[in-house]
Inverse folding.
């Protein structure tokens, strides 16, 4: 089995840059799907799929992904991730295992959320600028990206009480229907005060804040359809009006829905 060292991928490099121990690159696939062998990566790395049909075994990925997606692969990942055909583009961020030691990051390959994806696009934009200010931007941007992934890992991991996971899953899986706190507490089988207190202590946000984040994740996915009006997306994501949606989106993602759409 092939072992890929830092920055090695099946692709031609269109642009590459190293900042300290970090390596960023934008590439095009060069190996057809049927020729890609199982291989292992020494480093931790992100793969931001920019174009093409991508096949990945990462958790949360569809069988064939034809839209932008951000995948995190921890050190030692073994897979056969590849493009279907050679008409793709992807951006990578490679990080030595030693540089993330001690962080509570996922231990398996997974698709990252829309907020992490937005931070990855910011890093890709910084790759295009070659000056000392952009080097600082890349280092701080990677910290922001890793922190975002770590926060999401804190929410999604299953090491908390089963009743708390039931409440969280209800909010995530049916985010368009907002429950009352007593309804959520009945589902969990605990007192509303205990639910609210434990939820915030473990996840760093209230149930209502988490519900809104789930709606914003849904909205970010819908923004991939560039022809769909923002008013329709706001309604489909559970927001009462477009202005409320835009304010909440900017607060969470650090940009407007229109700016987020332009990143892609």
């Amino acid at each position: 089995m092939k072992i890929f060292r830092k920055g090695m991928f099946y692709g031609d490099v269109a642009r590459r840059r190293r900042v300290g121990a970090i390596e960023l690159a934008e590439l095009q696939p060069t190996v057809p799907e049927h020729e890609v062998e199982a291989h292992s990566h020494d480093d931790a790395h992100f793969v931001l799929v920019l174009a093409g049909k991508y096949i990945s075994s990462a958790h949360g990925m569809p069988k064939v992904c034809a839209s932008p997606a951000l995948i995190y692969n921890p050190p030692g990942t073994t897979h056969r991730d590849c493009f279907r055909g050679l008409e793709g583009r992807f951006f990578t961020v490679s990080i030595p295992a030693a540089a993330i030691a001690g962080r509570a990051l996922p231990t398996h390959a997974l698709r990252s959320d829309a907020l992490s994806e937005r931070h990855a696009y910011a890093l890709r934009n910084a790759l295009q600028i070659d000056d000392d200010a952009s080097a600082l931007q890349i280092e701080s941007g990677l910290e922001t990206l890793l922190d975002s992934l770590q926060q999401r890992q804190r929410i999604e991991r299953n090491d908390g009480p089963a009743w708390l996971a039931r409440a969280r899953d209800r909010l995530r899986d049916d985010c368009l229907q907002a429950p009352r706190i007593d309804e959520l507490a009945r589902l969990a089988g605990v007192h509303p005060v205990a639910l609210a207190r434990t939820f915030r202590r473990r996840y760093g946000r209230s149930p209502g804040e988490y519900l809104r984040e789930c709606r914003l994740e849904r909205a970010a996915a819908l923004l991939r359809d560039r022809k769909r009006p923002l008013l329709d997306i706001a309604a489909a994501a559970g927001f009462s009006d477009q202005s409320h949606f835009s304010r909440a989106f900017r607060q969470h993602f650090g940009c407007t829905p229109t700016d987020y759409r332009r990143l892609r």
Summary: The two ends are 34 Å apart (CA to CA). The chain has a mean pLDDT of 92.
